[in-house]
Design goal:
Elements lengths: L1 E5 L4 E6 L12 H9 L10 E7 L13 E7 L13 E7 L5 E8 L12 H32 L15 E2 L8
Antiparallel strand pairs: 1-2, 2-7, 3-4, 4-5, 5-6
Length: 176
Amino acid sequence: MILEVNNTFDERRMYLLTSDGESVEKAQVNEAASNEVFNLGPSRLRAKFSDSWTKDFHVSPFNSRVGTYSLIAEDPRPSKPMEKVSISNSITLVSSQGHPKLVARVFSDGTSIDPVAASSKNALSLLVRWCWVGFLTSPRILLEARKLFFRHKLQVWYRPEIAKGSIARQPTSTER
C-alpha cells in the first residue's frame, strides 16, 4: 500500500507499507473497542498494512517536525468474492516524549459505489450531496486553526525549510 501525505505548502511524501501477509485472527483490543463505539461489529479477517516512521514533514502549524507516526490500515480488497469493499485506517502521531498526541480513524460505513457501474442518477446524487465539502474545507480549517490559537493558546510552529525527500505536489504530465 502506498500512503501519500500532502501539506498546504505544495509538498508531498510517499511511504510504502507492507502487508503482514496473513489474515488477522483476533482484533486488537483498541480496534475491538473502536468497533463497539462506532457500531462497526466484529473485525473482519483481512490482512493489515502497518508501519511507523519519524515525523520529518511539516503538516500542521500546531505540531513540530519532531515525533513519529504509526499507521494500521486494513487491506481494502475483498477477502472473498462478493464481499463489500471497505476502508479502515488508524493513524497515531506520537510526541517526542512518547505520548499519543493525535489519533485519527477513517473507516467506511455503508455500501460502496462502483464508479464504473454507477448510474447517472447515482453520480448526480453523490455530486449534489458532497459538492459543498470542497468549498467549505478551507474556511473550516481556518476556523479550527483560530480556535486552536486563540481559545486553546497552542504554540505555532512556523514552516521550516523543505526537508530533503519532499516531492513537489504539482502533478507531473503523467499524472495529468
